Automatic annotation (TrEMBL):
This is Beta-xylanase. Residues 357-368 have a biased composition (Basic and acidic residues). Residues 348-368 are annotated as: Disordered. It holds the Pfam family Glyco_hydro_10. Its EC number is 3.2.1.8. It is found in: Secreted. Pathway: Glycan degradation; xylan degradation. The keyword Hydrolase applies. It comes from the Eukaryota. Belongs to the glycosyl hydrolase 10 (cellulase F) family. The keyword Hydrolase applies. It catalyses: Endohydrolysis of (1->4)-beta-D-xylosidic linkages in xylans. GO terms for biological process: xylan catabolic process.
């Protein structure tokens, strides 16, 4: 494997490309990375890395877009009924505005990271309608003019395509989706309204569920502009390029746009050259599916720096799902993403520029 890599390396030109720059050349609106407000992302022992992290996030050639990973969620924005707090969300909005980044806003109606009062109350249908309308209205009014898109409803579907039994669905049935989207459209007619979920990246029961949601809204005359593919993939079994192109087409056929909203590709630990190569292919195929699909407007990775990823806490034994290792060297997958972007423009495949760091050698990484 190593001699193969070295042989390839001598034949290829160096990469000087960066993600957002190449994404724009390939016709996308953006390549972005979600980020957390400092209070949420802090990890003991990593304080020294913040400056380097901030510089990469603010490099407009690397990233042209950001999403707050947590700060705009219900738990933070309306922790008590009628009491709104935008402190966490505003931190990321300021980063976006100061650095000219497009902001995707996330997420208005979601069963998770919901303020406890919403779940612990036994609502009448009317009372919960008022709660949804008030939440969507107040949060969207606060961020009006500052978001390219809103994830209006997040993760409403089970894997088999049926509706998740959230407090919203149990009380209102699918009416809650109509209410959330129709309210959102009234508050800000200029922002793109998305349905966002995971495992929507290949055709199947769940993607058909998303198609049904788009149709439900459109048939009722309610505005929906996009389907967000979270794309939390697994390096050993990601969707193929063709599956992703086909499923994007199934959404596009309904007249909505598509975005990769939370892309990451988790790897079983410890890393090895095979799993890093799988990860590279998985990134390349996700990015490639977007650039090859006219309906796909952009790609967001769910943070870019491995230590700030949600993965290890939720999937023990897995990690390194993003594009920058802890020592800030880049994953092979970074170059997979660049290759996919350049393929669109006829650019050449390239080899990574940096030399392998001592750390990388120690952990048997083949790139950098
Ligand atoms: O990255 C987010 C993490 O910090 C939170 O602890 C977690 C709580 O569920 O949410 C993570 O982001 C999620 C996103 O908002 C919706 N799709 C799944 C993401 C990963 O869990």
């Amino acid at each position: 494997m190593r001699s193969f890599t070295l042989a390839l390396a001598t034949a290829l030109p160096f990469c000087s490309a960066q993600l957002h720059l190449e994404a724009k050349k390939a016709g996308l609106k953006y390549f972005g990375a979600a980020t957390d407000s400092p209070g949420q992302r802090e990890r003991a022992g990593l304080e020294a890395s913040y400056a380097q992290y901030d510089a990469i996030l603010r490099d407009n050639n690397e990233f042209g877009q950001t999403t707050p990973t947590n700060g705009q969620k219900w738990l933070f924005t309306e922790p008590e009924q009628g009491v709104f707090n935008f402190t966490e969300g505003d931190i990321v909005t300021s980063i976006a505005q100061e650095n000219g980044l497009i902001q995707r806003c996330h997420a208005l109606v979601w069963h998770s990271q919901l303020a406890p009062w919403v779940e612990s109350t036994n609502w009448t249908a009317d009372a919960l309608r008022d709660v949804i309308v008030n939440h969507v209205t107040k949060v969207m009014e606060h961020y009006k003019g500052k978001c390219y898109a809103w994830d209006v409803v997040n993760e409403a579907l089970n894997e088999d395509g049926t509706y998740r039994e959230s407090v919203f669905y149990q009380t209102l049935g699918e009416e809650y989706l109509k209410l959330a989207f129709s309210t959102a459209a009234k508050v800000d007619p200029d922002v793109k309204l998305y349905y966002n979920d995971y495992n929507l990246e290949s055709p199947g029961n769940k993607s058909e569920g998303a198609v049904r949601i788009v149709k439900l809204l459109k048939d009722s005359g309610i505005k929906i502009d996009g389907v967000g593919l979270q794309a939390h993939h697994v390096a050993s079994r990601p969707p193929t390029l063709d599956q992703q192109i086909a499923v994007i087409q199934s959404y596009a056929a309904l007249g909505v746009e598509v975005a990769y909203t939370e892309l990451d590709v988790r790897v079983e630990l410890p890393l090895n050259s095979t799993s890093l190569e799988w990860q590279k292919q998985a990134y390349k195929n996700a990015v490639g599916a977007c650039v090859q699909s006219p309906a796909c407007v952009g790609i967001t990775i769910w943070d870019f720096y491995d230590p700030f990823s949600w993965v290890p806490a939720v999937f023990p034994g897995e990690g390194n799902a993003l594009l920058w290792f802890e020592d800030f060297s880049k994953h092979p997958a970074y170059y997979g993403a660049i290759e996919a972007l350049k393929n669109k423009t006829g650019g050449h495949t390239c080899k990574p520029k940096a030399r392998r760091s001592r750390d990388a050698v120690r952990s048997n990484r083949l790139y950098e």
